[in-house]
Amino acid sequence: MPLHREITLEGGQLTVWKVTETHFPVALSQASLKRLSGMKREDHRHGFLAIRMLLEKAGLSDRDVFYDANGRPFLEDGRHISISHSPPFAALYTGTQAYGIDIEQVSPKTQKAASYFIRNEVIPAGFELQTHTVIWTVKEAIYKLSHSRPLSFLTDLHVHPFDLAAGFGTATSVFPGWEQEFLFQFMEVEDHILTTCRIRNGG
C-alpha cells in the first residue's frame, strides 16, 4: 500500500494511501471483525482495512477508535479524527483541530445526483463534473463535523462560489441551532477530489 501523500494541516496531519494490495497485516478488535464481516463489497472491506493501516502509521491502532450510536468515529485521547475512502484511495486525518475530510471520484454519477444536494450553487459551464464533485465533498466533510445532525445537503448547506484553480472556498450551514461558516480546501488526487473542511475561527 504505497503512501500517496502526507499533508500538514493546522493542528494535525492528513495521510492518503493508494490501496493496491489485498492483504492487510493489521490486528483487529472483535467489534471491527464484526463490522468487517458485515461488509459485502470487497472494496469496502479493503477501504476499512486500509484505514487501520493508516492508523498504525499515525501511531494508533484499531483499538483506539470508537464509534458513537450514529457510527461516527472518535478517539478517547481527545484528538479529532476524520476518515474517508473511495477506491482505490483511503484517507485519514488526526489532530487537535477539528476537520472533516472527504474523497470522491470525479464521475458522472455525482452530476446525475445533483438535484439531491445542489440548489443555489454556481456551476461554471464546462466544469460541471469537477464542480459537482467538489460541492459534494464539501457537504460530506461538513456533515462529518456536525456530530450527526440531520442536515439536508440541499437546504441546510450552501457552498459559496469558488475558483477551481484556486483550490479553496467557503460554505455555510443554516441548520437551526448550528449556523456556521466553514473554510474548505480541495485538491486533485488522480481522478478524485480530496477536500478538507473546518469551522471558521475553529468554532
Chain-wise SSE layout:
Elements: E1 3-9, E2 12-18, H1 30-37, H2 42-57, E3 65-67, E4 73-75, E5 80-86, E6 89-95, E7 100-105, H3 108-112, H4 128-145, E8 157-159, E9 168-175, E10 178-189, E11 192-199
Antiparallel strand pairs: 1-2, 2-6, 3-4, 5-6, 7-11, 8-9, 9-10, 10-11
Order of helices and strands: EEHHEEEEEHHEEEE
Cα separation of the termini: 35 Å
* Number of strand segments: 11
**Low-confidence parts lasting 5 or more residues at pLDDT below 50?**
none
- Rg result: 17 Å
Strand content: 25-35%
Instruction: Name the strands of the widest sheet in spatial order.
Output: 7-11-10-9-8
Walkthrough of the structure:
The chain has 203 residues and is α+β, with helices and mostly antiparallel strands. The chain contains 4 helices and 11 strands. It has a 5-stranded antiparallel β-sheet with strand order 7-11-10-9-8, with helices on one face. Strands 1-2-6-5 form a 4-stranded antiparallel β-sheet, with helices on one face. A hairpin with an 8-residue loop joins β8 (157-159) and β9. The model has no long low-confidence stretch (mean pLDDT 92).
